Amino acid sequence: MGRLIFAVYAAALLGGLAWTEYRGWGMEPTSEARDVPRSVRNNPGAYRPLYYYGSGRYLHGK
Amino acid sequence: LTARSANCPNCGAPVTFRWAGAVQTTCPFCRSILVRHDLDLEKVGQVAEVPPVTSPIRIGAGGRFRDRAFEVVGRIVYEYERGTWSEWHLGFADGGSGWLSDAVGEYAVSFRNDRHGPLPAADTLTPGQPMNRGGTLFQVTTLTRAHYRAVEGELPFEYWNGSDSVFVDLRAPDARFSTLDYSDPEPVLYDGEMVGWDDLNLWGLADETEEAPRVGGTKGLNCRNCGNAITLRDPENTVNVVCDACGTLLDATSPNGKVLQTYASKVTVKPLIAMGAEGTLHGHPWQVIGFQQRTIRVEGQSYSWREYLLRNPQQGYRYLTEYDGHWSDVAPLRGVPKVRSGAAEYQGTTFKHFQTAGAATSFVLGEFPWQVRVGDKVTATDYVAPPRMLSLEKTDDEETWSAGEYVAPERVWEAFKVPGRPPAPRGVFATQPNPRAANARWFRAIFALSAVLLVGGCFARVGGGTGRLVMQDAFRFQPGMPDSGAVATQEFTLDGRTSNVEVEIQTGLDNGWGFFDVALIDAEHGTAKEVGREVSYYHGVEDGESWSEGDSKESVTIPEVPPGRYFLRIGAEGEAPFSYDVRVRRDVPDVVAFVIALVLLALPWLYAEIRAYSFEFDRWAESDHPMRSATSTAGEDDD
Questions:
Q1: What residues of chain A lie within 8 A of the CB of B526, using their CB?
Q2: Is the pLDDT of residue B217 over 70?
Q3: Model ipTM?
Q4: B519 vs A: CB within 8 A
């Protein structure tokens, strides 16, 4: 029984890894922002990202 | 005398020769010993008593050995301190002559060999001593001082007397067998091989119901100590019998059951299988006729196991042994294993040395075809290759090898129809099959296959490149720049399927740091994935030694980015100006994911291996070679 479980586990792990690689999944924590103004392209300094470091601490939002 | 028959010079009865080469025969009527001369028969002696019949073999029986037909034409019965054995004289159809040794269920066929070099003196040989003969390494197994007990039928020589002679048995690993016979001034060599009953293809054997003559002339006796009536189950061979009422050891070969040893100990061991129980093993019926407990002492601790002696009239004797509920099926070995550097090799299998200890018989019950006493001592050495074991029992004049195989207790109970359930085995026995080993092997195989796929997949991914370069740009950071010195890169296209994106930042930092907040912005839909990265690189020389810390390059992988038009918005911070290059790659292999998957695969496999190892650890804990370190978890909970 343990052998079957391990075989299924290994197959699932390999399958999961293949799917992860295919989809480009990763463990890097990213923040998602929506409705980013089109003006950022021309005025990048006006945008306040989630990882803003200018004040020495992380801020959220614009 | 050339005729095949003549009259007995003593009683006139007709004497017919079965084998043309016979020199001596015994008158079947008056039991005169007759020597064949050119013209007549001469009486040279008298057989004092009826020789014991130790097996179904009889004079007149026929057989075939190695495609040579033979007839049993004569017999010599030898007697030694532990009992008797028979040498059956075989007359072969091709005119040859040979001997079938019949010693309490062990059989050997041998032929006189007069073409040999000098033979060693008997007093130079000891049990266990190797002897190279023709490139084959024989081993001295037995030195026996014996004398003729009786003769019957036709023999190839005419001389016999009752004085003691020395016989030295040699065995080779492949079951070849030799005997050095020191009866005459010049030793005589007999070469042959150990054989099984079925190898002899015998016919014309004694009927099982035939009343076999017996040395002592009795098939039962009364205990001289308590008067208990004892019926012998193996009267043809039994030498010792223990009264089951009082435990007195009796000489079964004496007509009135001479007392050999009284049972003084209060310790009584009750056999789990009753004396006389019958069962089937290896397709043959066996009867339990004897029982003994043997004890060893190791580091002040006593360990006892029990041996059940089984008898089959044709197949001979074998044992069932029991230790802490573990059972083994044991039979004498025909060949002699090669012993070298802590191991014994036999028939292509290497058995590891397990234990050597002095064993003493601590309890006896039932019948034995050899002398047995409470207090008998042997040096017992065990070699194991689970589920099999080779055991060597050594005394001053004998080395006896036997082979055992672990057998499930339920199988014993079923074979001998023992009521109830067998006692649960305790601990791990020397030859107990490792129930976790098969599991570990499966886990190992599954892991190996998975690892090959995993590593192969990883190489295929990495070998395909470190991702497609889709954008490259260069910037410079100046402290005090407004809005964090934020810049936006040129737009670039990410095509193909949804996949990851790696942003690599190569800075010119030298003993400085910078922080980058990176936003990957979808130019068409206005969404962004944002990450932060600090880059710092310091180096110097301290106490004459150079050092460095960090790296001037950093990369970050943004997962699951759909195809589309993108650009990067990068905000930088730092204490000093620095320049930096930005590279964006698409569909970058994640080696860390492969490593993590490999670790996750290895964990169950390693767990299975550790469990299997812990079983072996417990196995060897009671040996002379305990394993040095392991976590013991083996027990009775194995599947």
A1: 34-38
A2: no
A3: 0.80
A4: yes
- For chain A, the residues whose C-beta falls within 8 A of a C-beta of chain B are 2-3, 6-7, 9-10, 13-14, 16-18, 20-38, 40-42, 44-47, 49-54, 58
Residues B367 and B234: beta-carbon distance below 8 Å: yes
Give the CA count within 13 Å in the CB-facing half-sphere of B322. Answer: 23
Min Cα separation B559/chain A (Å): 5
Confidence of residue B13 (pLDDT cuts 50, 70, 90): confident
Q: Are strands B136-153 and B32-36 parallel, antiparallel or unpaired?
A: unpaired
Q: How far apart are CA B496 and CA B99, in angstroms?
A: 89
Q: Give this prediction's pTM.
A: 0.71
Q: Residue holding tokens 């017999």?
A: B75
Average pLDDT by consecutive 10-residue portion of chain A (62 residues)? 91 94 87 83 74 42 33
Alpha-carbon gap, residue B189 to B119, rounded angstroms: 8
Buried/exposed code over B495-515 (b: 16+ C-beta within 10 A; e: otherwise): eeeebbbbbbbbbebeebbbb
In the predicted structure, residue B218 carries a pLDDT above the cut 60: no
Per CB-CB distance under 8 Å, the chain A contacts of B501 are 24
Q: Is B443 on the interface with A (CB under 8 A)?
A: yes
Please indicate if any CB of chain A lies within 8 Å of the CB of B570.
yes
pLDDT digits (tens, 9 = 90+) for B189-206: 999 999 999 999 999 988
- How far apart (Å, rounded) are the C-alpha atoms in residues B329 and B351? 17
* Pairwise CB contact (< 8 Å): A13 & B439: no
